[in-house]
Amino acid sequence: MERFITAAIVGTEQSGDTALTTGTRIDELSSQLSEGGKEHQLLLTAAAWGAYQNAGHLAESAPELPAPAQPESQDWYPLQRPQILEMLLPHKETALLQEALGYMQERRCRVPYDLLPAFLETVTRGKELREQALPLLGERGRWLSQHNPKWNWVNELSTEAGAIPAEQIEATWQEGTLKQRVEALRQQRLLAPDTARQWLQQSWKKERADTRAPLLEILALKLSPEDEDFLEKALDDRSEQVRLVAIRLLAMLPGSAFMQRMRAQAGTLFQYQKGKIAVHKPATLDKSWVRDGLINRVENTSGINDACQRLLEHLPLAYWEERFSLAPYQLLEAIENKTWQHMLFTVLCRRAAREYHLPSIDSLLAFWQEAQPDALRDARREERNLEIAGLISRLSQQQAEGIFKGMLGSHFASHILNVSVLPRPWSHNFGTFYLDWAREVVHNFPIETETGKATLEYLRLTLPPAALAFPPTCFPLALQEWNLPDLPEKYEYSIYYEHQQTKNSVNHFLETIHLRKMIVEEIG
Q: How far apart are CA 174 and CA 451, in angstroms?
């Protein structure tokens, strides 16, 4: 329309004939308007063009419809009572949703179609839910995930990186993305370990710093002494991540030069005489400590204790048995220096958990239990308890629950370890034991002593994980009235605060149990 306005202003003689064309079939009509001159033709053409524009336009071709979802598996059925699942999706306690998804998988129930968008949004935000949720999506859920980039994880989990045809492994290694190359190297390592190492050696100098570490990790598969020379060279890599991977792998080779260096260095630290172990820290440090990842630089002598701990963590449990012929309990008792005793306790706990060596675990637990009265005044007790939690996680459920029964039953250091370290679900026997103990603590309120207050605080700390750990057989007993005593006639604000905190904790505990009961009834 602007061309017509311009032609009207400057004149038809000045604008030329092109001002009267539109590039449409209107031009055929306007060419027949010879009478009246160009001015008449301009006005009629502009009027026709205006009507043409107001008349609309041809609709664009509709996009091609996406292929429909595949038929659902006949072995999976939609959840018949989806209300509880709908209630759990916005709930802040992810463990409840995980429990519901576990029951759905056992019953082979998929998510109803109308809940799929909200379900995908929820599990996308919680990475720990994704693998558990994948089989519950059904074909319709997998199909729907293709239409939202945020839900790409469904496709990634559905098409696991494995499954590279044998004839394409080398080509994928040469030309693929980092993830594909890692997978190609992993498969080749399983098929021909030496060839995989040679591939990595040949491309090593060309690899970027951020790709070398994940590629080097693959050598952990079928690790052998033949890999040692390459790993030793990796200790000089510019990337700290690469050096850390090389150190970890060399420490897995008992006969490696790296482990010989660790044993030699450890041999200078301890001296055993007359049933006592004396500690002799090195007076000077050399560059080998830097290369082996024990310290950052030679001048950093302030971190000598941390460096010694890193050194000791590389040593297997067999080293201590061979050198001192002492069980962990006896070994720790022989060290008079409390700082080094704590360091060695940490080292032995981590190694015993890693090697899953039950005699050492029992010995370390015995030392910890006997040392607890002193540990209550020890600033390092929280660090010790973290290590003990790692040991307990390696025990059988009966053994682990037995330790907590002893603690709670005798009120021995009851506020030391959180019950969350116990495997879920608890046994019925331990569940009823805990409920009896918890009700007794609540019944004794108000608690005046410091030990009593600590026990009450421990109760409040353990109620949330306990609510998630009880087996369904304990639900009726847990839901019985707790009978929290009323406040005395005269009380201080601190007593009122303790009372309200305990009441809120018990109420939250009961709400969680009610929800779990609904999950079992509706899904389980």
A: 65
